[in-house]
Amino acid sequence: MADKPAVERSGVEPPFEYIGNELELFLHAENWKRYVAKRLRRYIKGAVLEVGAGLGANSPYLYRDDLQQFVSLEPDPKLCDQFRQRQKSGLIPAKCELLEGTLRDCDPTKKFDTILYLDVLEHIEQDAAEVSLAMERLRPQGCLVVLCPAHNWLYSPFDDAIGHFRRYNKLMYRELSACKPLRIEYLDSIGLLASLANRMLLKQPYPSEKQIRLWDRVFVTLSKAIDPISFHRFGKSVIGVWRV
């Protein structure tokens, strides 16, 4: 009889390992990260938890000295090591705390004023259950903030390659919870055209660094001007905010 796999014999779950390798590429998207941070600033207050922090690419743009606490939560041990290395190099604020694990691993008595999922929820199969758990970890009047890639009709080989279960629209956000969203808006109207071109023509599993830099410098800059004019009715990404 063949031996069972080691993880079954030991009863220990294998460490989580992120399957994408685009995180390094998107370190170059500085204009985009500043844009997102500016749109979210009013909801980021008090004790903050960022779920799925990855390399900590968003932390320098989200962290502020007036925050009570900023905790970065990441389940992938390798990404945690890289986070620590980047923090030692001064690329991530020293006051950002790193915890290894998922929200289920955190102390359930610990509550936050803001919980962030930035390009994370689409990687979680049981997304509604995750949203429900996150809301349980919020203090009264706390905010859950979610940013995801928009529109399932844009689902491409790139989404598949980095482990996306889905992309989202406004209706899908409303169905995530019985709690009515405080705000839903789309961002990156010009980037939507680039995503459509990739979906219909290029069909690339991964963008190149040159393409990321072009999108960040040109497309995002144009989107920052066009998005308000269009009242944030369309875009490549969608933001949802819930308040408990």
Task: Describe the fold and architecture.
- The chain has 244 residues and is an alpha/beta fold.
- The chain has one domain: Rossmann fold.
- 36% of the residues lie in helices and 19% in strands.
- Helix 2 packs parallel to helix 9 and helix 8 packs across helix 9.
List the helices and strands and how they pair.
Elements: H1 6-10, H2 30-40, E1 47-51, H3 59-62, E2 69-74, H4 77-88, E3 97-100, E4 112-118, H5 127-136, E5 138-149, H6 157-161, H7 170-174, E6 183-187, H8 189-202, H9 209-229, E7 237-243
Parallel strand pairs: 1-2, 1-4, 2-3, 4-5
Antiparallel strand pairs: 5-7, 6-7
Q: Any key phrases for this structure?
A:
disordered N terminus; 7-stranded mixed β-sheet; Rossmann fold; alpha/beta; about 240 residues; about 35% helix; single chain
Which outline best applies? globular
Low-pLDDT residue intervals, each spanning 5 or more residues = 1-12
CATH superfamily: Vaccinia Virus protein VP39
Tally of individual helices: 9
Could you give the count of β-strands? Answer: 7
Could you tell me the strand content as a percent range?
15-25%
The H/E string reads HHEHEHEEHEHHEHHE
